[in-house]
Amino acid sequence: MADCIFCRIASGEIPAQVVGRTPEVLAFRDLNPQAPVHVLVIPVRHHAAARDATGAEGERLLGRLLAFAATRVHWPDVG
User: Fold this and answer.
1) Cys staple from 25: which of 19, 48, 68, 69, with CB 3.0 to 4.6 Å?
2) Share of the chain above pLDDT 70, in %
3) Do the beta carbons of residue 10 and residue 42 sit within 8 Å?
4) Nearest CA to 31 among 48, 51, 13, 9?
5) What are phi and psi of 60, to 5 degrees?
6) In what order do the strands lie in the sheet with 18-21?
């Protein structure tokens, strides 16, 4: 989606400090961190809101996002 800032980051149109990526998930440092480690984890494909991730596919995506976030917190370049 052209006007979505997260889609623009995921496509590389807007630069970001990426700390991890898969074909489905992107993690990058927040530009205005509110904690010593503040990383945003987003789906690469556009979703207007978490509530839009429904059914089996939505559950799979949300599970992958959560698992990705949990495993990336311990990476040396993140912490």
Assistant:
1) 68
2) 90
3) yes
4) 9
5) -65, -45
6) 18-21, 25-29, 39-43
Query: How far is Cα 49 from Cα 12, in angstroms, rounded to an integer?
Result: 21
Cβ atoms of 57 and 41 closer than 8 Å? no
Dump pLDDT digits (tens) for 30-67.
Answer: 999 888 888 899 999 999 898 988 999 999 999 999 99
Which pLDDT band, with edges at 50, 70 and 90, does 2 fall under? Answer: confident
Q: Work out the number of other CB atoms within 10 angstroms of the CB of residue 41.
A: 19
Residue 72: count of CB within 10 angstroms of its CB: 17
The separation between CA 42 and the C-alpha centre of its own chain, rounded to angstroms, equals 2
The answer to whether 37 touches 46, Cβ cutoff 8 Å, is no
Question: Which pTM does this prediction carry?
Answer: 0.84
